[in-house]
Amino acid sequence: MEQSDQSEQSPSRPFWLLFYGALAFSTFQLVTAAFSPVSTTVVRALHVGFLFLLIYCQYDLRGVKQERPSWLGITLGLFGLGLAFYHWIYEGELILRAGELNQWDWIIGIATLILVFDASRRMMGWALPGICLAFLAYSLFGEYLPGSFQHRGYDLEQVISQLAFGTEGLYGTPTYVSSGYIFLFILFGAFLEQAGMLKLFNDLALGLVGSSRGGPGKVSVISSGLMGTINGSGVANVVSTGQFTIPLMKRFGYRSEFAGAVEATSSMGGQIMPPVMGAVAFIMAETINVPYLDITKAALIPALLYFFTVFWMVHLEAGRAGLMGLAKEDCPNPLAALRARWYLLLPLVVLVALLFSGFTPLFSGMVGLALTVVLILGSGLASRISATLWRVMFWLGLGVACATFNQYGITAIFVVVTVLVVLIFLGRDRGVLKTAVDALYHGALHALPVGIACALVGVIIGVISLTGVATTVAGHIIDLGEHSLMLSLLLTMLTCLVLGMGIPTIPNYIITSSIAAPALLDLGVPLIVSHMFVFYFGIMADLTPPVALAAFAASPIARASGMAIGMKALQIAIAGFLVPFMAVYDPALMLQGDPTWAAIVYISIKALLAVTLWGMGSIGFWRGRLAWWERIAMIAAACVLVVKLPYSDELGFAIALVLLAQHWWRWRNAAPVPAQSPS
Q1: Longest C-alpha distance within the chain, in Å?
Q2: Environment class of residue 641 by beta-carbon count within 10 Å: exposed (0-12), middle (13-18) or buried (19+)?
Q3: Peptide bond preceding 546: is omega within 30 degrees of 0, i.e. cis?
Q4: 171, 184, 414, 437: which could join 365 in a potential S-S bond, CB 3.0 to 4.6 Å?
């Protein structure tokens, strides 16, 4: 088996405490997920403790990443991990005296809160900690506010008890999901990446569309979308796949800002593409208490529309600029790529089958991860067997050994993995073991921004639960929506976009779902649609200037302004703005409301036509260049198809038919735009 294709490997040997701490973190999460030896309260506390250790071993006081931590960083990291053991050792006593803090409770609670804020600030900057500090200040001083936002008042003991020891604060639902589902799926993606999944996806994309018009841009859409389905992190996806796709697009004539925008938009879309989606999907399932399968079903059609839009924009831009694809002989054979690494798809197939069979994400993720590890280790041993017959016998025996899972549970898989590790170690084939160790190490590091954001945003959830401020805000949105649902939707969208200026998708979703989503539900928007609405605009916030985290992640690779990339990404990702509104007015787009097949097909075609028209009007090209009035008319027709008014659909379809027919007739005999050669 070929070893990792990662470009993200550490340039030098990591600091020993960071390295072994990351391995211990991954091992702890695997053991607790498989065997549940301690309570969920202890798991959450130790999860946050490991986050402290690894963050303080990486980031200095200014938030700058460092190769070797200072003694202060090491001390704070070990102290933060030690705080978690207080919840383990005194778990029973803490339950008995819930709400009544003794002296040590005060010290541990205040110290934990300070470390959560400081660790988040070091890793993500001041945006999210600043918002959470505002909520914390509201819990302590909100009784002095005028009007409807005034609360009855809470003393410091109540606030610390709620945030540092309850299950609605730092250790609430987001941390529960982070310490369970999210970490497993991040580790799952890390193992697949280390095993060469990125190269498989790139080769498949190159082989399928690389030679078509504007092929390099389409390669980015497919490979980034596929990678997003297994890692669920848009910004991390930009950094990994963008190293390959952005230079390829620029070499074949795409402008720097357009290349960066295509990669950023495609990578962010991975969070809404079933079956894995991003971490938010797991939190959403727990928050609204619906099966994860229902979330993936609701996201399917909008996700396909999203990626169709990006693909369509790339195609139109290539036509407008006359960009050709790669030479056929320079594109890898997709069948050859599959033959070389087909086994890497097996864990994904099993994961999808389990999720769609009704198994929990925890069980499905654990089985998928176990299968991935067995395949990586097994491939390392099988590569040393020259005879085909013996190689087949080896895989059959390994399959039979793994099948004992049905009788002995996950213990059987752990035994199989242990035996494989011992055999590889005795055979001195350290390369395969290094792949597994690197996956454990990088998986733990990839989980840090998600985990610390989930812990810190627990402050907001705790304050909302304590003070009931969400009811007040929701009341104002409902009052507005009684006069115009569109105004309520626009207000919610703006809230998501403004909050997203500097904070990740997860806390953005948690804040807006706690405040705005219940208001949309009261206005008659279905439960899943209301939460998907705020989820989508949380993702769009990472593409929206002036912050645009995904766009600025692509900036150094594309060597273009992050602001310019963000503005172009908004143009490309228009489906992310149109589809949520269409789903609110017609929930059949998200398979909600018990729709008929006819209703689903109709709304899907209408949405497809809307984003197609918007793409043509935005780029200014279809079969040939569009006149200025054609561009305005196409965008207007797309907007008419989005709104839900009497005869708006009929008007939109009629305008679209006339525009498309006249443009096709005008350019029916036109020669194609001359192709540009790659520079």
Answers
A1: 84
A2: buried
A3: yes
A4: 184
Phi, then psi, of 621 in degrees rounded to 5: -155, 145
Instruction: Tell me if residue 65 falls in helix, strand or coil.
Output: strand
Alpha-carbon gap, residue 216 to 210, rounded angstroms: 6
C-alpha torsion angle, residues 96, 469, 493, 609 (rounded to 10):
70
**Phi, psi dihedrals of residue 281, rounded to the nearest 5°:** -60, -40
Residue 59's SS3 state is strand
Which residues contact residue 596 at a Cβ distance below 8 angstroms, ignoring those fewer than 6 apart? none
Q: Cβ neighbours of residue 194 under 8 Å, at least 6 residues apart?
A: 3, 4, 6, 376, 435, 436, 438, 439, 442
Query: How long is the chain?
Result: 679
Instruction: Summarize pLDDT for 513-529 with one digit per residue, the tens.
Output: 877 788 788 888 899 99
For tokens 């988040």, what's the residue?
120
Q: How far is CA 254 from CA 210, 303, 423, 616, 624, in A?
A: 14, 25, 50, 18, 18
DSSP conformation letters of 421-474: HHHHHHTT-HHHHHHHHHHHHHHHHHHHHHHHHHHHHHHHHHHHHHH-HHHHHH
Average pLDDT, the chain: 84
- Contact between 439 and 29 (Cβ < 8 Å): no
- Pull the structure tokens for residue 409: 């549970």
* Nearest one of 533, 536, 534, 564 to 548, comparing CA atoms: 564
C-beta of residue 583 within 8 angstroms of C-beta of residue 529: yes
Distance CA 541, CA 279 (A): 16
Per the CB < 8 A criterion, the answer to whether 299 and 281 are in contact is yes
Cβ proximity of 676 and 253 under 8 Å: yes
Closest CA relative to residue 583, chosen from 525, 541, 508: 525
Residue 673 has pLDDT above 60, yes or no: no
Identify the sign of the CA torsion 614, 246, 340, 373.
negative
Residue type, 48: V
**Cross-strand bridge partners of residue 625:** 621
The lowest-confidence range among 275-279, 385-389, 445-449, 519-523 is: 275-279
Contact predicate 597/301, CB 8 Å: no
Q: Are 506 and 186 in contact (CB under 8 A)?
A: no
6 is written with which tokens?
Answer: 């990662």
- Supply the pTM of this predicted model: 0.79
